[in-house]
User: Fold Response regulatory domain-containing protein from Rhodoferax ferrireducens.
Amino acid sequence: MTFQLLLVDDSEPVRTRLCCLLESIPGVTAIDQAATLGEAMAHVRSDPPTMVILDLSLPDGFGLDIIVPLRRIVPHLLIAVLTLHGESGYRQMCLARGANWFFDKAREMHLLLDRVRQQAAEHAHSPINQGMKHAPL
Assistant:
C-alpha cells in the first residue's frame, strides 16, 4: 500500500521546497499538490491520500474550514496543519476540529518532517499493509 501525501498551500515556492524535502523520506510514494481548498477537496474525493499537509490561509477560504469535511470523506485521513498562523488559538481550533497535528511553518518544519517520516514508516510496517484483514473499529 502506498503512503500518499497531498500538500495544500497557495505558495508555489513553499510547495516546491516542501516536495523536495518530503520526497526524500523513505516510504513516501507520491506527493500531490493543491493550491486552493476547492482543489484539495476535489483531489481527496477522487484519489484519497494517506496524509494531507494543510496551510490555513488559502485564496478561496480558510483551511480550518475543510478539516471536518475532509474527515467526513476519509475518516482515517491524517491531517497536519502547517501554517504561519502559529498562535495557540489556531492550534487548539484545528486540533478540536480533527487535525492530527499543528506545526508553525516558521519554527516547526523539522517537526513536520519528523512526523511524516514516522507515519510513513509505521504505514509501511502496518499489518493491514501486509495483507492482514482487520474488522472495522
Remarks:
- DSSP finds five helices and seven strands in the chain.
